[in-house]
Amino acid sequence: MCSIAGMINLNKNKIKGLEQKLEVLNKIQKHRGPDGQGIWKNKREFVGLAHQRLSIIDIHNGKQPMRDEAGNWVCFNGEIYNYIELKKQLGCKCKTNSDTEIILHAYQKWGKECVEHFSGMFAFAIWDEKKQSLFLARDHFGIKPFYYTIENGVFYFASEAKALLPFVKNIETDLEGFQDYLVFQFCLDGRTLFKGIKELMPAHHITIQDGEVKISRYWQVFYQADLDHTEKYFSEKLEECFQNSLKYHIRSDVPVGGYVSGGVDSSIIASIGADMLPDEFVGFTGKFSIGPEYDESQYAQLVANKKGFQLHQLDIQAQDFIDNIEKVIYHLDIPTAGPGSFSQYMVSGLAKKHRKVVLGGQGGDEIFGGYTRYLVAYFEQCIKGAIDGTMDSGKFIVTYESIIPNLCSLKNYKPMLKSFWSKGLFEPSSTRYYQLINRAPQMEDCIYRENLPEHNPYHSYERLFIAENVDKKSYLDRMTHFDFKTLLPALLQVEDRVSMAHGIESRVPFLDKKLVEFAATIPANIKFKNGNMKYLLRNAMRNYVPGEILDRKDKMGFPTPFSVWAKGDARDFILDILSTRKAVERELVNNRRVKEKIEGESAFARNLWGFFCLELWQRQFMDKAFDYRKMVKE
After folding, report:
1. Catalytic (active site) residue 75
2. Rounded to whole angstroms, how far apart are CA atoms 8 and 5?
């Protein structure tokens, strides 16, 4: 786990001040790799690589950038979990025990197809000396970040978007990305909120040669239901796949711990992780003592007691929010969905005191159907199908009769249901799911729409929702696929940034290629049986996880009391942020109107978070544009 960065002149002209620019890239990303740093530049100085290292595998060796005998250089962030098996398969003689060296050997044998052999999380750059080309790749799921920009004929890349700001001529808001953010609270199609800075999409790689920049996708998951096997088969296979994934994910030369929220996903990882590492595993959790609705620590403690590992707890206060939220936005680079990112940041700080590698539960909801909105959307479509007489095969459809016993999960969602069903009821599933996740209507009265260009995020959404790699008969697969391709990378951005802010490595065992590909073959009537969220996952893990956890119907998802603080202990702090001269003069957001909503009866929670993050982001990056530009000496 580290940071990578670099640049290449597309015309192979010497880059003026190359070494100093590489040092700037490392300086901005130093928090990601506190254990060492390195830079490399070729003799003609038109290409260079920069690296900050967090030592996890082969602590004493594996320094980067690393060179092979052919003169190729690699700069790598992440972990290749199957590096031991690849070493045997390649039959290569290695100078180190690091997975970094295996990337070079794999590239020598397979070229750009090497990524198809890797199991892990990665973003890397390889300079091919013979071809005089630069090869850049990002992992299958977007666990590790990769950003790039092109300025004055030079291609720059880095692990974090802010590292590229010194090289962007004009630091401005991307207005299409901004409109994506209003709808989803993340951007689509590789856009970011920084104009000119792009994100390399998951499962894509870039080849730069002779001035050409070619971007290609190398993998995607296909959702094709396996109708030939029973629930028992899928349950046993799932157990096997997850066990294998976790065995790879605990490979480390330093001790391993885990985040334990008290929910299903983190409890599965902690329970099996503790079994595999009985003398090493420790857990970390956070709570808010302002009320039971914000405290799930008793469930995390239950798991720790049953599995016999130590659980470190952090009681997070409003003052912690006031003291740290601006740091969180700085490390996130780009505002993201939900105030949970702040809570994760605080718990990562706790974990840093005890472990260098921590396991997290990201991916379980998107892969196995864990969000309540899936039940809301499915319920409507089931009723529609029953009325229209268009109910299809039970392998693809959860029937309205079977879903009724599980509707108690929607008890606290009555206001949302009322709003959702007030218009557009029974429209096509793609339209309805968009309306279910679209946050823009609730934010519209605080936006200066006249300052925005014409851009409809629905077009990008629809292309992903009706993608050809998803069986059109399975509504559940279409919903989970969209979230897998969009929401999950946004959540992984948070997972990466808040852990790397403290110099620790977060690993996500649910995101194993074989596990994900297998899960995509599980029919909806088994994966989401009777509308029971994550039904198959829960049942497959009953030998490992306490039933009190698996049978919970009240999981809160690490709720952060932002709306409570906004009307209480943090009210003055938030209002002060939104009341500065620059804040009230923003061209895109009417912060006066945002303040009025805070001072009213409701703090409109999620939407307030979205606007507050935007203002902190503007303060941190747009208002300090000159500070970034002056870091580079021209």
Report:
1. no
2. 11
